[in-house]
Amino acid sequence: MSEEYRSDRTDEHLSDDTPRRSLGILATLAGILCFTGILGCLLPIAIWPGEAKLTAPLFCEAPYTEPIVVSDTYHDSEGRSTNYSLYCVGERGQYTEVGFLRPWLALWALHTAIVFVLVMMSRAWRRWRPAIPAEPARLTESTEL
Which of 30, 52, 87, 144 falls between 20 and 30 A from 100, CA-CA? Predict the structure, then answer.
């Protein structure tokens, strides 16, 4: 075999760990996004609509500094519907409507960041956890004194 032929085949024995690791990372990210998407639908709509007030520093600018979440319920031929909307209100009653989507997206990003940090911390804890010391080897033969 010539030297040129051997140099072409040096990449043949690469490790297969990289594709498996990237698939694991992508699966973890997809799981986090799905979980936080469900959490994002459940928490600010059904459990605590006032959570949208946490996004006020992002969307409420002076002179509209007080966040208020308003629920609007109406009945039509299809049944009862409720809409939630974030309003930024000023000192004299003037207001601007932020709506629902932008605060919801900001909360989804916040939930995703929190869950991502928790998952990374748990993975790091599993890797850096001190190893349990092995049980000392027992003597197979005994000697009589």
Answer: 30
> For residue 17, what pLDDT is reported?
54
| Strand-by-strand arrangement of the 66-76 sheet | 66-76, 79-89, 95-99
Q: What is the DSSP string of 4-16?
A: HHHHHTGGGG--S
State how far the Cα of 36 lies from the Cα of 43, in Å rounded to an integer. 10
Cα distances (Å, whole numbers) of residue 3 to 7, 8, 10, 14, 39: 6, 9, 11, 20, 59
Q: Kindly state the tokens that stand for 119.
A: 């998952």
Instruction: Dump pLDDT digits (tens) for 50-108.
Output: 888 888 899 998 888 899 998 888 888 888 888 889 999 999 889 999 988 899 889 88
